[in-house]
Amino acid sequence: MKLLLVSLLLALPLAVSAEPFVPKDDAEIVQRLPYRIDAAERERRAALARDPAQLPLAVATARAALQRARVHGDPRELGAAQAALAPWWRQADAPAEAVLLRARVLQARHEFEPALAELKHLLARTELAPDQRAQALLDAAALHQLRAELAESRALCEQLQPLAALPAAACLAELASLSGQGQAADQTLARLNPGRTMAPWLALMRAELAERLGNETTAPALYRTALAGEDEVYTRAALADWLLARQRAAEALVLVERSPDAEADALLLRQVIALRQLGRDASAATAQMRERLAAADRREPGKHAREQARFALDVEQQPREALRLAQVNWAMQREPVDAVLLLRAALAAGRDGDATRRELARVLRGKGWQDARLAALDRSFAP
After folding, report:
1. Does pTM top 0.70 for this prediction?
2. Structural domain includes residue 26
3. In degrees, to the nearest 5, what angle opens at C-alpha 157 toward C-alphas 156 and 158?
4. Of 180, 183, 223, whose CA–CA distance to 2 is shortest?
5. Domain span holding position 380
6. Is 317 exposed, middle or buried (0-12, 13-18, 19+ CB in 10 A)?
7. What is the rounded CA–CA span in Å between residue 191 and residue 286?
8. Helix (H, G, I), strand (E, B) or coil at 382
9. Of these four, 15, 84, 319, 321, which has the most CB atoms within 10 Å of its CB?
């Protein structure tokens, strides 16, 4: 869901080595980072270390860390955000700004139930400032939509309307697009930015909708417009998927390799798939990706099933394992990309996937989902 909230669900984590690595000498390079912490941020962290109870400083530090985690896909920044919030991490009546950031850390770690619980408790407070209430409503709506709980998400977006008209309109349009009203939703989103220059976040929402509607020309153009935004890793991965699905692996490979965050797992996975499609040697990148997924699973068991399923399906050629992992993922998150992955895995698994395919079709018909990708894979998903 691409609204004005700071989305932390879509950038995959970077490498965590399976075994400790000890450099041979102090001059040996361990890892090249795609970004640097600037002097102002270092000073902020130092000041917070001297006095951890400074709430405004802690909030600024945690917010900046969450931003970097989203933009660069670096899970270490989630730890930095939690550390900044340490004095309020388990405090039931913590200040609202700390609770909002606490929920976002949990959300980024795919701990969706605890994140929702934080937001619901926060929304029950009567003293919330309007902007805090608006952000809590938007974040909670995004979490419900992530799990295909569309009625719950819609109710929250409707509450948001008097507080933040633009994100509420985008939220409701997105929900309409998932309820059989894709064309009308696209027209609504187009009206939200009538100027010459389209906001990258809006271009990304419209690109994803265009892809679901099967608009072959509009979708890639919108994705490229969205590359100017802060969700660069996620956008590149989405556009790379669009190219890979059309056997345009050479373009996808160039796209991911040119990213300043080319080492992010989301992009490394697409690099591996593109190399395989091109018939080129992908052994080193494949081994690296396999190690990263194993490390992520040790760190957060069961929380990275989407990436694991994609790897098993498109890289390891293990359809039954891909189906198992896609089912685990579907139980946790139910975005359109998750439905496509589950259907692909079910079809690849043959008879073993028949029951899953039928159940998925039943569930999505009940919700009124429209997705050209699903219909192209299986005509039973056609509207």
Report:
1. yes
2. no
3. 90
4. 223
5. 302-383
6. exposed
7. 43
8. coil
9. 84
